[in-house]
Amino acid sequence: MSEQGLGQAQDKMAAAGVSQTAIDVFSYYYSELQEGATGLIREETIRPLLDPPMLTDVEVDDAAAAEALGATVLIKLNGGLGTSMGMQVAKTLLPVREDKTFLDLIVDQVMAARREHDVRLPLLFMNSFNTQKDTLAALAKYPDLQVDDLPLDFLQSQEPKLRTDDLTPVEWPTDPQLEWCPPGHGDLYPSLLSTGVLDALIEAGFRYASVSNADNLGAGPDATLAGWFAATGAPYAAEVCRRTAMDRKGGHLAIRKEDDQLILRDTAQTAEDEMEFFTDEHRHPYFHTNNLWFDLRALRELLAERDGVLRLPLIRNVKTVDPKDSSSPEVVQVETAMGAAVEIFQGARAICVPRSRFLPVKTTNELLLLRSDVYDVDEAGRLSLVPEAAPVISLDSHFKKIADFDERFSAGVPSLRQASALTVDGDWSFGANVTVTGDVHLQDDGAPQHVADGKTLS
């Protein structure tokens, strides 16, 4: 049945206009599933990464830094709709500060780096079918953003979800779009190839790519990092941060004992009986920020050697076809992580960067921080933390959707510079000019409650 399932999946992808490269990649992972691959990385096969170089110790002269940045393209992963926040457009169109969206601040960062270092620095978004139209429309107000004939974006691929019982493409007539899923951000590499963007960048004289999630405003252009990467001569580098108790779920880097190769291990690649090792921030002290660098020529050579299929480690993600309906058919989503490419580039490196380069927004908790006075945002779109440490924010389900969040902070978000933590349980709304100091916990009494204008919570 599985061979029949592969044929059905290939036909479905071809009919939808999916590239042959993407079909070949999917077919490889389908065979992995048939053979029972789980993608698990056992603890006994790895040892911790303990001593990466620190960006704070790196010294690169200004000329070398500018030269390296001038050979770099900035790629942002922009395929998400922000559905967990109740959005139906790209998350990057969400306002962060006044009328500036994530997209606006990213553009500000790029344009400032171009002026400061006198470089071209193309900005390139990897969009999904769901985000491309809205993103390109929002970028239309920046006529000077495009570099020469290079595009502003390219499309990631899509693949069918597979039934867990027979590995055939699932059918869901209620909402056929739910029959499809993205192949994880490991799709970055084959999509660069299949769209022709990789060749175009190399032909335009670019050598390096700096890649990060579009919702991480900390990962802006960095000439020192570019200079460090160029000087190493490495084909690939991963940015890591020191783990804390808050980072126990994030993927970490480790060293494979078999060949001393750097690898990435995610939650889905960890056996349940070994999660205690995975979540131990002392045993595995560095997590992957999902910021990375690679040599464009080295990637093209590797893709050519492997016929477009890098064979990144499989992530077998089991869900229901409709994530909101637990009774809908169980499916497998075949995924890969772009950070897993660290193990296929010989000589790959890691570098520990300051926490300021890791500011992702996955929930309204992080959005509240970015909209508050905890961060200053300068004219170049760069964020800087004002207090020594950001407060820990925990908002309950009344704030989960962006519309509900905005309604409860309609008069503006509170001042959080003097706060160490803010926990909100229940249906609270906030007036204007509210200040939070210390560790504050607003409790649920079963009815809507309001914090008055000018109130100081302590």
Give your account of this protein's structure.
The longest helix has 16 residues, at 102-117. The protein has a 7-stranded mixed sheet, sandwiched between helices. A 4-stranded parallel sheet has the order 20-21-23-25, with helices on one face. The mean pLDDT is 94. It folds into 2 domains: 2-357, Spore Coat Polysaccharide Biosynthesis Protein SpsA, Chain A; 364-457, 3 Solenoid (UDP N-Acetylglucosamine Acyltransferase, domain 1), CATH 2.160.10. The protein is built from 12 helices and 25 strands. The radius of gyration is 23 Å and the shape is globular. It has 458 residues and is α/β, with parallel strands linked by helices.
Defining traits:
4-stranded parallel sheet; 12 helices; alpha/beta; Spore Coat Polysaccharide Biosynthesis Protein SpsA, Chain A; globular
Q: For the record, what is the CATH homologous superfamily label of the largest domain? A: Spore Coat Polysaccharide Biosynthesis Protein SpsA, Chain A
Detail the poorly predicted runs.
Answer: none
Radius of gyration: 23 Å
How would you describe the shape? globular
Strand order of the biggest β-sheet:
6-5-2-10-14-11-17
Give the beta-strand count: 25
Spell out the blueprint of helices and strands.
Blueprint: H1 2-15, H2 20-34, E1 46-48, H3 62-70, E2 72-78, E3 95-97, E4 100-101, H4 102-117, E5 123-127, H5 132-139, E6 153-155, E7 159-160, E8 162-163, E9 180-181, H6 188-194, H7 197-203, E10 208-213, H8 223-232, E11 236-242, E12 252-256, E13 261-265, H9 275-278, E14 286-295, H10 296-305, E15 315-320, E16 330-335, E17 349-352, H11 364-371, E18 375-377, E19 383-385, E20 392-395, H12 402-408, E21 415-424, E22 428-430, E23 435-442, E24 449-451, E25 456-457
Parallel strand pairs: 2-5, 2-10, 5-6, 11-17, 20-21, 21-23, 22-24, 23-25
Antiparallel strand pairs: 1-12, 3-4, 7-9, 8-16, 10-14, 11-14, 12-13, 15-16, 18-19
